[in-house]
Design goal:
Elements: E1 15-18, E2 21-24, H1 32-48, H2 53-82, E3 87-89, H3 104-110, H4 113-116, H5 123-137, H6 143-163, H7 167-188, H8 197-215, H9 234-242, H10 247-254, H11 258-264, H12 267-277, H13 280-285, H14 297-307, E4 318-321, E5 326-329, E6 345-348, H15 350-355
Antiparallel strand pairs: 1-2, 3-5, 4-5, 4-6
């Protein structure tokens, strides 16, 4: 595929998505020709004063400097616009057209996770990704990516403290991150951490402070004169419990009222939960019977989760185009050249996202 650029070594033009489709982005402003004319005029004015040769040299240097500043500003503007695109080409090796490869830190900076956490469909996805990075990939991030990581984390914590939603997810994330940083600071330290060790000590203190704030979080009781969850018919309350895919949510909801507690202990509910997360072959290896000789599905669930990963479920995820090798958010799109782009898309789980950048 030929490159649509002035230089075959360049990565191509920058494109912007419009209502009429993808169009090439062009920079508006003064052309290089105008700068050249100004430089020529400046040089002519200097040449008129032939008595002062030194002034001519100064004007020539000034003209070259203006050209250099123009190209630098143009490059910065292009890079700033390019990084606003919410997709990234995943390259694992050097080719004739592209040199180098894509890293986890570059992908984390480019895919705009700061805006993703504001979307309720993507919130759990981003939190899970940050948790996996905290466990094993924090030291593989570049300095800029690590700074971006903590900026996103700070926004997540502030959002949870303001909205008072999903505090348990963030507590697990902060606990894993504080454990990792404690080990790195005490045992490894300067050899793998980017920046001054005192910066990481301050970050650890900030994380511990966030944990304290979340532990002290008091969710006020909702005062409502309308219908409550307890006012719903029994079968509707039962249907709500069957919609949960997290055992902790079922247990917490069961503590609200005696009726919900009775429904949360239903054997069929825990059987459905086991069947959703685990395969039948795994049931046979860890079969647990109650005193009455029946299968204890609740105990089986908590036993199976120690040995096997649970099925992950997210409202929205990143997608990978197998035709273009591009990672992107689905609603943002990407400049795909396939005849049927939908058949080339593959949802990317948080663990798969990290695996894409392992070499």
């Amino acid at each position: 595929m030929p490159f649509l650029g002035q230089d075959w070594r360049s990565p191509g033009w920058s494109w912007i998505k419009t209502e009429d489709g993808w169009k090439r982005f062009q920079f508006f402003g003064c052309d290089l020709g105008e700068d050249n004319n100004r430089d020529i005029n400046l040089e002519n004015l200097c040449d008129e004063n032939k008595e002062n040769v030194y002034m001519g040299d100064v004007c020539e240097v000034a003209a070259k400097k203006r050209k250099k500043d123009y190209f630098n500003n143009n490059t910065k503007t292009q890079c700033k616009f390019f990084y606003q695109e919410k997709w990234i080409y995943v390259q694992k090796e050097s080719t004739r057209e592209r040199h180098g490869y894509c890293t986890l830190g570059e992908a984390f900076n480019r895919l705009d996770f700061s805006s993703a956490i504001q979307d309720v469909r993507r919130f759990n996805y981003v939190v899970k990704l940050l948790q996996l990075i905290a466990r094993s990939q924090l030291t593989s991030l570049s300095g800029a990516a690590q700074k971006n990581y903590f900026n996103v984390l700070e926004k997540i914590v502030k959002k949870v403290l303001e909205d008072q939603q999903n505090p348990r997810l963030i507590k697990d994330l902060l606990q894993d991150l504080s454990s990792t940083l404690s080990i790195l600071i005490r045992e490894v330290g300067r050899s793998v951490l980017v920046g001054n060790i005192n910066i990481w000590v301050c970050r650890l203190e900030t994380i511990l402070n966030w944990e304290q704030q979340l532990n002290n979080l008091q969710i006020p009781k909702q005062l409502s004169s309308g219908m409550t969850l307890s006012d719903l018919p029994l079968h509707m309350q039962n249907n709500i419990l069957y919609k949960f895919s997290d055992a902790c949510d079922i247990i917490n909801l069961g503590q609200a009222t005696p009726t919900l507690h009775m429904l949360s202990e239903d054997r069929q509910l825990w059987k459905k939960l086991c069947q959703f997360h685990f395969a039948e072959k795994q049931f046979c290896r860890h079969l647990i019977l109650s005193e009455k000789g029946q299968v204890d599905w609740k105990m089986m669930y908590f036993t199976l989760q120690k040995y096997y990963p649970q099925k992950e479920q997210y409202g929205d995820t990143l997608h990978f185009c197998k035709h273009c090798s591009i990672l992107f958010w689905k609603d943002s799109g990407h400049p795909c050249t396939a005849n049927d782009p939908d058949n080339c898309l593959m949802p990317v789980s948080p663990q798969h996202f990290i695996d894409l950048f392992k070499f």
